[in-house]
Amino acid sequence: MHERECHGRQAGSRVRSKPVDRRTVLRATAGGATGVALAGCLSSYETITGSSSDDEETITIGMLAPEPESNFVGRSMAQAAAVAVDELNENGGIDGKEVELAVGDTNGSPLEARRQYQRLILEEGADVTVGMFASEALVNILDDIAEQETIHLTAGAATQIASRRVHEEYDRYKYHFRVGPTNDVDLGRAQINFMNDIATDIGWESIAVLAEDYPWADEPWRIYQEQLADTPVDVVMDERYPPATNDFSEMYDDVVEAGADAVFISTAHTGTDALLDWSYPNRPDPQPQPQPFAFGGIHVPMQLPTYYEDTNGACRYGLGYSAATEESEITEVTPQFVDRYYDTFGTYPQDMGYYTYDSVALFAEAVERTGTTETDELISELEGIEYTGATGAVEFYDTDHVHAHDRVYDVGDDSTVGIYFQWQETDDGEGVREVIWPETYATSEYVTPPWLADG
């Protein structure tokens, strides 16, 4: 591995007119080829996993992530936890105790997630668990969390099922807290706020609402149906499309016919195909023409810090929703974490890495404040905690709230969870994710795609 790959800033690529091989991009964004390999910039995987100890002077953090050796999201979660643990140990550990990190590979499977959770608790002696990316995997371990009576801080799954169980059966499920992302209901609320605050200012007066038909998008879709009509934008088309969709050309023909200024999309699994069928570099030869509308929304692949390079710049002008970016300064902690992460791994964290870092740091703060790892005392502390992390202000909904122990979306003073960024290009031809909303965190103004500005 070259020194630049491990310690130098990764460059983006100029927008190219030749089409991108989407099969290659899909493999990359699934985690197999994107970014810096874990073993390359860390001495070994064992450096992250460590081994647990019966020593009472050691605190073990159990980390649950999907395929951390190959999947970009899982790797970012594990590496972010490693950064947090390293920082804690450099500053005396947690309450004077050394901190160790044990990682469980959920392999994207609810069954494996449960097995790994049990291993971390029963074999590794984890004092707390953090992470868990897939909602179905989180749901599958809720009863195990209850039986083990050990705090779990979610950093990945958005399902409201967990918080509803805390609300409905507090004594059994009180051990679960969600540091991020916000639950799927608040995720939908955030998109409505974006439409109210800035959509018409950037020229999105009419939108086509598209969402892949996966369970994670059910609640945002319900909120779109109920609340978008009350925003300043005009919804001229809406469609839940099948999970197997890999060709958006006919759908986009309908968008054009409807006269939408922008496609507002909610996508995780199908995001790259949707992007490539929109973007200018991938229009059919011999005379490529850009789609006559803007593009953005909840687009998980665009959260990858290497996505500009992965797509040969095809994501330029696209909008995405995320916890933070390498350019953002949500709080003073954000750039500190980003710089430390980059210095260690030679790349930037993905969305879930920010939440994971905050989860470990938050647990450490709660232990420091209480002076104990006793579960009930920590639960009481977390329920009333006000903490500032890389993703902003962290507070949790009260136990009488239907989403008990979920992170509060809007804690006031213009402090919300999540930002909208736009992939832009620097004068040197590098891709960069500039924050455009909320205004409090903005690092740049929205750039209208030139083929729309000229129109």
TrEMBL record:
Alphabetically ordered keywords of this record: Signal
Region feature Disordered, mapped onto this chain: 1-20
Highest taxon above the source species: Archaea
Record has Secreted as a keyword: no
Positions of the Leucine-binding protein domain: 58-406
InterPro entries in alphabetical order: BCAA_transport, Leu-bd, Peripla_BP_I
Database matches in PANTHER family: LEUCINE-SPECIFIC-BINDING PROTEIN (PTHR30483), PERIPLASMIC BINDING PROTEIN OF ABC TRANSPORTER FOR NATURAL AMINO ACIDS (PTHR30483:SF6)
Full protein name: Amino acid/amide ABC transporter substrate-binding protein, HAAT family
